[in-house]
Amino acid sequence: MLIQEKKIDVAMNRFGGDGEVIIEHYITESMLNSSVVMYAKVILKPGCSLGYHAHVGNTETIVVLSGSAEYNDDGKKIILKPGDIVHCLEGHSHSIGNAAAAKEDLILQALIIKTNA
Q1: Is 20 helix (H, G, I), strand (E, B) or coil?
Q2: CA 107 to CA 36: how far, in whole Å?
Q3: CA distances in angstroms from 95 to 19, 53, 86, 91, 103, listed in the order given
Q4: Confidence class of residue 33 from pLDDT cuts 50, 70 and 90?
Q5: What is the value of pTM for the model shown?
Q6: Contacts of 115 by beta carbon, 8 Å cutoff, 6+ apart
Q7: Average pLDDT for the chain
Q8: Cα separations (Å) of 59 from 20, 35, 63, 70, 74?
Q9: Residues 74-90: pLDDT tens digits?
Q10: Is the pLDDT of residue 28 over 90?
Q11: Residues 51, 13: contact at Cβ < 8 Å?
């Protein structure tokens, strides 16, 4: 099956973060099964972030494709670089952002899966 349509969402201040979050969905909602919430490329321009939030009923795996990420894992702040992979388990919290002084967009791959499906 070749997927030609592309769904792009733009969210402002997602989870209390800064600026806009561009979400390019790899698969459409009609293709999602009962366990997959989202599988997408996420773009954060310099100064933009996904705010600190908890995962309840799901987990999230993030792969950094390009750029440098400021990541908060349950209160522990680290810097992620291309190729790094982080996994936020159900009941845990995280945030991720692109520094305001960054020279390029932060591009991520995100997979959110329900834990109770």
Answers
A1: strand
A2: 21
A3: 14, 7, 11, 14, 20
A4: confident
A5: 0.91
A6: 57, 58, 59, 90
A7: 93
A8: 22, 11, 14, 19, 14
A9: 999 999 999 999 999 99
A10: no
A11: yes
Sequence letter at residue 103: K
Q: Measured between alpha carbons, how far is 109 from 36 in angstroms, rounded to an integer?
A: 14
Residue 19, both tokens: 């600026």
3-state SS, residue 29: helix
Q: Which residue has the tokens 């933009």?
A: 48
Q: Return d(Cα 54, Cα 56) in angstroms, integer.
A: 6
The answer to whether the beta carbons of residues 96 and 42 sit under 8 Å apart is no
Can you tell me the distance from the alpha carbon of 17 to that of 50, in angstroms, rounded to the nearest whole number?
5
| CB-based burial label for 64 (10 Å; 0-12, 13-18, 19+) | buried
Find residue 43's DSSP bridge partners. 22, 107
CA distance 71 to 25: 22
Does the pLDDT value for residue 117 go beyond 60? no
- β-sheet with 76-80: strand ranges across: 49-54, 93-97, 69-73, 76-80
Structure tokens at 108: 């991520």
